């Protein structure tokens, strides 16, 4: 899951011991004022989230892989600390399949093995305590060691990473020693999504990375940079995955004003 806004948001690299499992550690705090829904964009990842404050009970949340964007409400003053896992990793550590969690954010407690659940709950009681954060990291590292055979092996991990590249899915499967059907099964088992859908999500994320790096980039150049066939293709895919045209998505992200994201050749 990737937030488009609605809260002060900070993202940092994971501790070195978790680098193979976790892509990023993030924190957010919802602004004061009326609760307002915001858009969570698909990124191919699953998150373990601790939430507290804002006049509500503390929560442990498992955010499953999102096939498309979804709208989420944040209670004003609510704080969150999240671990964004690399595709295929968190599903190997929980007592549930990624497919069962597609597009959902259930209570994490029943789905976490006890050592991880206990460490997460302890941190939820003291979210700013450095020792509790280290204990959660240690619990994750220990769980990954005991469940190593369930984690993506080197070939699958490399193939998952390669899906985030401008190559055909079939070519990616072959290059990493998979037949197409076996590849499809392995990716679905690891993430809940098909390889093709995951590649579409990764391409959307490349779009976001490109426009954040250069907010003045034209939509036509953006389509080429993110490896869409053309600008109309980018618009169709952006709308299918986020519910917004590319221009409106960029305006919602605050990257540029809507009039600055005007369509070219009627594509947007």
Automatic annotation (TrEMBL):
UniProt domain HTH araC/xylS-type: residue ranges: 169-252
Cross-referenced InterPro entries: AraC_XylS_family_regulators, DUF6597, HTH_AraC
Source organism, top-level taxon: Bacteria
Keyword annotations of the record: DNA-binding, Transcription, Transcription regulation
GO molecular function: DNA-binding transcription factor activity; sequence-specific DNA binding
Name listed for the protein in its UniProt record: AraC family transcriptional regulator
């Amino acid at each position: 899951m990737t937030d488009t806004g609605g809260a002060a948001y900070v993202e940092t690299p994971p501790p070195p011991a978790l680098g193979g499992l976790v892509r990023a550690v993030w924190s957010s705090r919802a602004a004061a004022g009326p609760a307002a829904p915001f858009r969570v964009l698909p990124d191919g990842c699953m998150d373990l989230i601790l939430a507290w404050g804002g006049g509500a009970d503390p929560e442990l949340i498992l955010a499953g892989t999102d096939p498309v964007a979804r709208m989420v409400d944040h209670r004003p003053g609510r704080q969150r600390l999240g671990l964004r896992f690399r595709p295929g990793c968190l599903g190997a550590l929980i007592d549930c399949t990624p497919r069962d969690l597609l597009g959902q954010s259930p209570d994490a407690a029943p789905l976490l093995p006890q050592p991880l659940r206990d460490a997460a709950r302890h941190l939820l009681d003291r979210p700013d305590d450095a020792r509790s954060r280290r204990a959660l990291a240690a619990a994750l590292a220990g769980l990954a060691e005991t469940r190593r055979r369930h984690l993506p092996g080197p070939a699958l991990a490399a193939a998952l990473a390669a899906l985030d590249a401008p190559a055909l899915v079939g070519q990616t499967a072959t290059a990493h020693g998979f037949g197409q059907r076996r590849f499809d099964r392995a990716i679905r088992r690891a993430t809940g999504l098909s390889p093709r859908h995951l590649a579409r999500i990764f391409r959307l994320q490349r779009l976001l990375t490109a426009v954040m790096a250069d907010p003045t980039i034209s939509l036509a150049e953006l389509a080429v940079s993110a490896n869409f066939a053309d600008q109309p293709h980018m618009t169709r895919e952006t709308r299918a995955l986020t519910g917004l045209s590319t221009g409106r998505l960029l305006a919602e992200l605050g990257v540029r004003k809507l009039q600055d994201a005007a369509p070219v050749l009627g594509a947007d």
